Amino acid sequence: MKSFFVVVRNTIVKFFYKTVFKQIFFLMDPELVHSRAIKIGTILGASFLTRSFITLCFSYSNKILEREILKIKFLNPVGLAAGFDKNAQLTALWPSVGFGFAEVGSITGEACEGNPKPRLWRLKKSQSLVVNYGLKNEGSEKLSAKLRNIKFQIPIGTSIAKTNNKETVETEQGIADYVKAFKQFSDIGSYFSINISCPNVFGGLPFTDDSKLDKLLGKLDQISTGKPIFIKISPDLSLDQVDKIIDVVKRHRVDGFICSNLTKNRVNKKIIDNKIPEAGGISGRAVEDLANNLIGHIYRREKDRFVIIGCGGVFRAEDAYKKIKLGASLVQLITGMIYEGPQVISEINMGLVKLLKKDGFTNISQAVGSGVK
Ligand SMILES: Cc1cc2nc3c(=O)[nH]c(=O)nc-3n(C[C@H](O)[C@H](O)[C@H](O)COP(=O)(O)O)c2cc1C
């Protein structure tokens, strides 16, 4: 009965999203839609009544999806990826939308306006977005003060990055910037994501270099925090570079990887739109296979030594399951929600339950890495 209600409800919500809301949204400037969605979401998240209504429209739960990872309890494995809720305005709403966890930010040491507009585009045929926000956010001081006393209902990850300005281009200053944000968030949220892979910033990706990463992580080791730490990596790294990063990371207090961020590489069979903006990183279907290659590679090499969060091109349960079978314990998404509608989170979770049962698993943890020989 419960499942029947969820299927009917999701079908209705999906129909309205695809035939009405998406048609209107996709005529508007993408950044305007994003900022309006944040405003409306803030209103909906503010009262118990509206949150309960959203829960009725979007939630889904099943014991088979529940598990504890790094002492954090997850009710389901589908999370919001970093970059949608940059200033942590919707943490009260995400549980009602059905997410098992959500990552806020990326948050940087200093407040940052981001890159000049326009800085967000849709590649409709490729089911992707081109993103050139350049780490727009209100900065670690303001955001940590806002979040310090909030009791979150689901695990909230804090994504930390280096401020996008000329002052942080030198390694020492860049590290100091990460350290500032890290310290301020040491006791806020459930886990850290250290974003070393934002493609749209001053000075490129310096901390994908193993010796610079070693220095950065050495500094972070000295800051006390009880929270697990994930490193978010770029899908454009060679496997050789990934191996070097893994070797560095093993010397430090790092619990896992997020695979992956946006791709900068325009030479990609999944990109079928004719016009692609020159600036920015690409999300969605264009990044799916690249992220999956990273997940499989790290899991094959390290097995359970690291927890992997799979991210990039999750639109359906089958996409999430593929990542899980390759070794991801959790998955994240943004683009799938924009193209399919917010009911996609419960659709994915419901679909995962079916796929797990079909394969004879009684808990999602048993499926992790089951496709890797
Ligand atoms: C609008 C937008 C903004 C993003 N901003 C960030 C960010 O600030 N930090 C980060 O680590 N990743 C950021 N990302 C990357 C996503 O977290 C994710 O890695 C990527 O979009 C692939 O997932 P998807 O295909 O489900 O969107 C952003 C992505 C989008 C679409």
TrEMBL record:
Molecular function (Gene Ontology), one example? dihydroorotate dehydrogenase (quinone) activity
Family annotation (PANTHER family): DIHYDROOROTATE DEHYDROGENASE (QUINONE), MITOCHONDRIAL, DIHYDROOROTATE DEHYDROGENASE (QUINONE), MITOCHONDRIAL-RELATED
Q: GO CC annotation: what is one?
A: plasma membrane
Q: Which residues form the Dihydroorotate dehydrogenase catalytic domain?
A: 65-356
Q: Which UniProt keywords apply?
A: Flavoprotein, FMN, Membrane, Oxidoreductase, Pyrimidine biosynthesis
List, separated by semicolons, the cofactors it needs: FMN
Please name one Pfam family that this protein belongs to.
DHO_dh
State the name under which the record lists this protein.
Answer: Dihydroorotate dehydrogenase (quinone)
The keyword Flavoprotein belongs to this UniProt entry's keyword annotation: yes
Pathway(s) the chain acts in? Pyrimidine metabolism; UMP biosynthesis via de novo pathway
- Enzyme Commission identifier(s): 1.3.5.2
Q: Where are the transmembrane segments?
A: none
Classification via InterPro entries = Aldolase_TIM, DHO_dehydrogenase, Dihydroorotate_DH_2, Dihydroorotate_DH_cat
Biological processes per GO annotation: 'de novo' pyrimidine nucleobase biosynthetic process; pyrimidine ribonucleotide biosynthetic process
Give the source species: Candidatus Doudnabacteria bacterium CG10_big_fil_rev_8_21_14_0_10_41_10
